[in-house]
Design goal:
Biased composition (Polar residues): 32-45
Protein name: VWA domain-containing protein
Distance between the termini: 97 Å
Signal peptide: 1-21
CATH topology of the largest domain: Rossmann fold
Shape: globular
Region (Disordered): 24-45
Mean pLDDT: 81
Keywords: Signal
Low-confidence stretches: 20-53, 174-179, 182-192, 262-268, 352-358
Strand content: 15-25%
Number of helices: 10
Number of domains: 2
């Protein structure tokens, strides 16, 4: 049968169209063709994320009556906060007994502590066993002619105890290595130096405490004498304040050591006033225990009680400039002879400078 010429043309067109469609159809192994909208313009012009810094000051503090007993049941209406002589409005106020706690145990292993180190090791280990819970953390640093990390952050009191047991008196030799807690000892230049106490607090504040959140406290076991630090006491205090860490000092002075060098106890060391300043400025306390084991046990118990009987108050300061300036604080609570124990001030640092703020 012969087809009409016009029908033959139509048939050829249909066959050609089918062949072209078959060539354009993707094979099962071909890469999928994206039907998503073009995002080139969006990638070249990224969306800006709005970041807001909220300047909220948080204060941990304890309150004692005139006999020294802790006061545990105050409310927001009982207390007031003044910043640079300007009253502040308290936004949040809570009694905190169970918040996670970060502890930095600082052990003086210089020559003057030779006779009292075993007492510090035993009593300090017992304290950590009592106070450290599963959600808490602690680290251990020794300081003498160098600053050494004996145990990094842990929730296991046995590891702190082991670090305590391994601590040794070091009166010379210096130290090499990269400066900074956790990266080796702080190097000393020239002749061996004595007791790098201020360097230890400064380094531990910046390298360990500043990036932590929540309640933070240092416990220094020392006679308070600093010899050879590259940082001053004001640097150490400022670093601790910026880390929002409280400093407790157990002042441990070995009477035998100082009398052996011909000094009277009152003249043999001058660390007490420096340690009191360091503790007071950060909201802690200095407790003089001498070389008496019972006094040391009692001091550790006082610190434990205070850390478990704290208030947390927060406010947005009327001065909202994040200019790095130091702001003086005065916290008071109503009651007969009540005494508030808290830091004396803070640095107005924004979150871009300090991830933890104040």
């Amino acid at each position: 049968m012969r087809l009409h010429p016009s029908l033959l043309v139509l048939l050829l067109i249909a066959v050609t169209s089918l062949a072209l469609s078959a060539q354009e159809a993707p094979s099962p192994d071909a890469s999928p063709v994206s039907t998503a909208p073009d995002t080139t313009a969006r990638e070249n012009n990224p969306v800006t994320t709005l970041k807001v810094n909220v300047n909220l000051v948080s204060l941990y503090f304890t309150v004692h009556d005139k006999r020294g007993a802790l006061i545990p049941n105050l409310t927001k209406d009982d207390c007031s906060i003044v910043e640079d002589k300007e009253p502040q409005k308290i936004k949040n106020f809570n009694a905190e007994t169970d918040l996670p706690l970060t502890l930095g145990i600082m052990l003086d292993t210089s020559g003057s502590q030779q006779n009292v180190l075993p007492m510090e090791q035993q009593t300090g280990s017992a304290f950590v066993k009592r106070i450290l819970r599963s959600k808490d953390e602690a680290f251990l640093v020794s300081f003498d002619v160098q600053v050494s990390l004996l145990q990094d952050f842990t929730s296991n009191p046995r590891l702190i105890e082991r670090g305590m047991d391994e601590a040794q008196i070091n009166v010379g030799g210096g130290g090499g290595g990269v400066p900074g807690i956790g990266q080796g000892p702080v190097p000393v230049q020239g002749a061996p130096k004595g007791t790098l106490l201020y360097d230890a607090v400064y380094e531990a504040s910046n390298d360990k405490m500043r990036t932590e959140t929540g309640r933070k406290a240092f416990i220094l076991l020392t006679d308070g004498e600093d010899q050879g630090s590259t940082h001053k006491i004001t640097d150490a205090i400022e670093a601790a304040q910026k880390a929002n860490a409280i400093i407790y000092v157990l002042l441990i002075a070995d009477r035998g050591f100082y009398s052996g060098y011909g000094y009277g106890l009152s003249l043999g060391y001058t660390g007490a006033s420096a340690m009191k300043k360091m503790a007071d400025e950060t909201g802690g306390r200095m407790i003089d225990v001498g070389n008496n084991g019972k006094k040391m046990e009692a001091a550790f118990q006082q610190i434990e009680d205070e850390l478990r009987t704290q208030y947390l108050a927060s406010y947005t300061p009327t001065n909202n400039k994040l200019d790095g300036s130091y702001r003086k604080l005065d916290v008071s609570c109503k009651g007969d002879g009540l005494k508030v124990q808290t830091r004396k001030g803070y640095y107005a640092i924004g979150s871009t400078e300090d991830s933890q703020g104040q």
